[in-house]
Task: structure prediction
Amino acid sequence: MALEATSVFEEFRPDIILTQSTPFQVHLIGLHMPDEMRRRWIAYFSDLWPLSLTPVPYRTGLSVLMKPLHMRALNKVAKATRSLLFSNAVAARRAAEALTDAPACIVVSHIGEPSTGTTPGNELVQRYATRFVHVGKLTRERISVALIDALRSIGDKWADRGFTGITFVGDVVGTFREACSDLERSGLVDFIGEVSPDTARNISSAAKALVVIEADMDESPFLASKFADYAMLRKPILAICPRGPMSEMLAVHGGGIAAPHDDKAIVAAIDLLLASEKQEGSETLAREFAAQRVASTYIDAFRKLL
Result:
């Protein structure tokens, strides 16, 4: 692969060479490139790596055992590349603190999926206009028992305020579905499985608000790509997450509420979203993930390196 990259470099003479994980082994290609190419090389991490640098529950016993090997590989890459690029400042800080000799770190957020501007059909509006919607995979790390308790305490008493529950679109870990069995029977929670991207986007557009869930930990080094997509839809966001990039962005730009994994805090957040006169998202939050802005941030960072 390094030979192939060298061939492409000789043909196109690019200003910047970007290796993008995952897997991490992709970055090892850079170690085999000639010096001229390494001087133009940036290693991009959409998520913090290795897992041993992340909080529990992502940090596992195996990742801690493998940490010396992984950190040795990461330090080699960091020493050879011009810069490390991350999707958020928390991930960049955690990596810099762990590296022996960290290069400059660039922070550039994800590009959000632009809104199509189309209006969902009446059937979808009638079904989801009173529901909060979570789109995408829900893994075991991000199960929120507090959310289940919050929904049980709310029940159907807020139906007259336009809240009839939460819909999960996409693959959901079985243990969460089992824990929600009583809520599913009552209709407060429903699961519709995998759908096409267009259908998921139309459901999101019809929803009263959109939900993103991050694992319960002291600080999150993750910026969920679905958060960027939600922002571009200009819908209110309920982020069940610890302090980190998503809670910080909502605090700065508005467009939703971040709540910790606490049932009373989640109930209060839903209450505030229902009480808000502005039943839409934030334009300034959406602009953070607009393609033109993100691309400009990349270009500005590249120019500084050149």
Observations:
- Residues 79 and 101 are 7 Å apart (CA to CA).
- The longest strand covers residues 41-45.
- DSSP finds 16 helices and ten strands in the chain.
- The longest helix spans residues 291-305.
